[in-house]
Amino acid sequence: MAPEPERQKSERQRWFGPALALVAAVTAARLLALIWNRTDLFVDESQYWLWGQNLDFGYYSKPPLIAWVIRAATTLAGSDAPFWVRMPGALFHGATALILAALVARIGSARAAIWTAAAYVTTPFTAVGSLLISTDTIMAPAYAAAIWGWLRLAQTGAARHAVLTGVAVGLACMAKYAGAYFFLGAALSALVLPRYRVGWWSLALLLASFLAVLAPNIVWNQTHQLQTVAHTLDNIGWVRGGASAGPALHPGHALRFVLDQFAVLGPVLFAALLVAATRRRLPADWRMLALLALPPLLIVTGQAFLSRAYANWALAAYFAGLPLAVLWLTDRMPRLLPVSLAINGAVAVLLPLLTILAPWPGIGGAPLMKRYLGRAELSRAILAAADQFGAASVYASDRDILADLFYTGRGSGLTFYAPRRHEGPRNYYEEMFPLPDPPGPTLYVLTSPPICGGAAAEPVQTFTVARTANASQPVAAYLLPDGCTPDMGPDR
Q1: Residues 53 and 155 in one domain
Q2: Whether residues 430 and 351 fall in one domain
C-alpha cells in the first residue's frame, strides 16, 4: 500500500495534543474524586481484591487479569486502601479513549478523533467504570487495541499488526470472556468487506498470539472442571436451566435491556450508533466498526429475550460502536455532538459528586448511594464481636458479608469461613474457604437463626447498620455448641 501523503498524515496527527490534554484533565479529576470517595468497596470489588491476594491463572467466576492489575496497583502503592484498588479504572479508561481516538484518526479526521476521546471519557459507563473497578474496565483498552490492530492489519498486512491484534484479544479475554465477541465481528467484516480478508498467514499469526496469551487460563479451566466457563453458562440461565420445553420468552426483558443502553452509552450516542450501523451505504472502515458493534448488542438482546441480561453485558459493542457513532455525527449531524457531550458530561460529574457527598442526598429516608455504604461498618461490628466473645474465626453464609469481612478484616488475625455446601460451592468463598470440621471457636454470622437441639439458637449480638445496604437485612451473631453448625444443604 502506498505511503500516506505527508499533508494528510500531518492533519490527522493534530488530534493527539488536544485529545491527550482533555483525557489527562478528566482522568486527573477522577483520581481526585476517588481520594474523597466515601463509599465502601462493593461486593465484586472486594472479591477481586481477594483474588489479587491469591494470584492464579483463573478464578471461580472470571478470568484473572483484574486480580493481577489490582495486586500490581496495591503492591506498587504499598496500600490496600479503596483508592488504590479502584485507581486503575480511571487510567484504563483514559488509555482506551486515546486508543479509540487513534483509530478514528486513521479512518476519519483529527476533529472526529478529538470528539471520540471526549465522547468516550464522558459516557455514563466510563464514569461508573472510573468509580468502581470492574472486568469491563480492565477489558476496555485491550479490546480497543484489538480493533486498532485489526484496522492496521487490513491496511498494511504487516505481521506485527497480526501479532498485536492477537495479543490484544487475548488480554481482553483474560479480563472478561466477552472479549471473544471480537472474533465474531472480525469474521463478519472479513466475510462482507474484501479489504478485511487478511490472508491465512496473518490469521494464523493472530490466532497463535491470542492462544499464547489465553493459554494459562485455558489450562487452569481444564484442571478446575471448566469452572469459570460453567459459571458463565450459569449466568446465561436458559443454557443450563434444565427446562425440557426450552427457555421462556421475555420480550419485556429485551425491551428493558435495549432502553438501558441509552443510559449506558448516552441517549445521543446510542441513537446515532443504531442509525449509523443500519445504513446500507457506509465507507468500508465504518462498516467494519458496525459489524464489530452489532453482534454483542444483538446477542445480548436475544439473551435478555430468552432469560435476563444486565445492562453492562453488551459493553464490548461500544469500543467499535462509539467511534462509529462519533464518525456519523461528525459527518451528518455535528450539532448533536455538543448536545451529547453536555448530557453525558453532566452524568460524568454527578456520579463522582454523589460518592463524595454520601450519605447525602437521601430518598425516602435512605441514602441514594446506600448500596455502596455500610459494608465496612457492619464488618467492623462483626470483628469487634468476635474479639469480645473470644472467637478465632468468623463464619458467614451471605456472600456480601463475606466479601467485606475478608477485605475490612485483613490484618485482624481472624480466619473467615463460608458454607460447605452439600451440592458443591456456589462462589469463590465456598470453594476456597469452606467451614472445616471441627470448626473451633467460631462466631456464626447469619441472616436467620440456626436450629440446635430442635430449637432456634439465640443470638449473642444483633447488628444494625441504619440507612445502608444492610439496613433491611437482619444480621445476628451466634455462638453454637459443639456438634451444632448451620445447615449447609441446598436450601440454605
Answers
A1: yes
A2: no
Q: Say which DSSP state 355 is in.
A: H
Q: Which long-range contacts (CB under 8 A, 24 or more apart) does 450-458 make?
A: 450/478, 450/480, 450/484, 450/485, 450/486, 450/487, 451/487, 452/480, 452/481, 452/484, 453/484, 457/484
User: Where do we find the cell 488504590?
Assistant: 84
Q: Label residue 154 exposed, middle or buried (CB < 10 Å: 0-12, 13-18, 19+).
A: buried
Q: Are residues 19 and 125 in the same domain?
A: yes
Q: Is the pLDDT of residue 491 over 50?
A: no
Q: Is residue 119 a contact partner of residue 340, using CB atoms and an 8 Å limit?
A: yes
> In this structure, is residue 264 part of a structural domain?
no
Same domain, 421 and 468: yes
Element (H, E) at 362: strand 362-363
Domain end (from 322, 357, 392): 357
Distances (CA, A) of 327 to 10, 115, 314, 428: 19, 9, 21, 43
- Same domain, yes or no, for 442 and 350? no
DSSP assignment of 192-223 = H-GGG---HHHHHHHHHHHHHHHHHHHHHHHT
Residue 168 lies in a domain: yes
Please tell me the number of Cα atoms within 13 Å of 418 on its side-chain side.
22
How many whole angstroms separate alpha carbon 272 and alpha carbon 267?
9
CA distance 167 to 206: 8
Report the side by side order of strands in the sheet with 393-396. Answer: 415-417, 393-396, 442-446, 475-478, 461-463
**Count of domains for the chain:** 2
Q: In this structure, is residue 462 part of a structural domain? A: yes
Q: Which three cell numbers stand for residue 453?
A: 437441639
Distance of CA 481 to the CA centre of its chain: 42
pLDDT at 328 over 80: yes
The answer to whether position 246 is within a domain reads: no
Distance of alpha carbon 146 from alpha carbon 162, whole angstroms: 9
Q: Does the predicted model carry a pTM greater than 0.90? A: yes
Domain that holds residue 50: 6-228+333-357
Indicate if 427 and 344 belong to the same structural domain: no
> What is the C-alpha R_g of the chain?
25
- Identify whether residues 54 and 98 lie together within a single domain: yes
For residues 349 and 438, membership in a common domain is answered with: no
Q: Is the pLDDT of residue 492 over 50?
A: no
pLDDT digits (tens, 9 = 90+) for 247-259: 679 899 999 999 9
The grid cell for 149 is 490492530
> Dihedral of CA 459/465/467/470: which sign?
negative
Extract the C-alpha cell encoding 483: 456438634
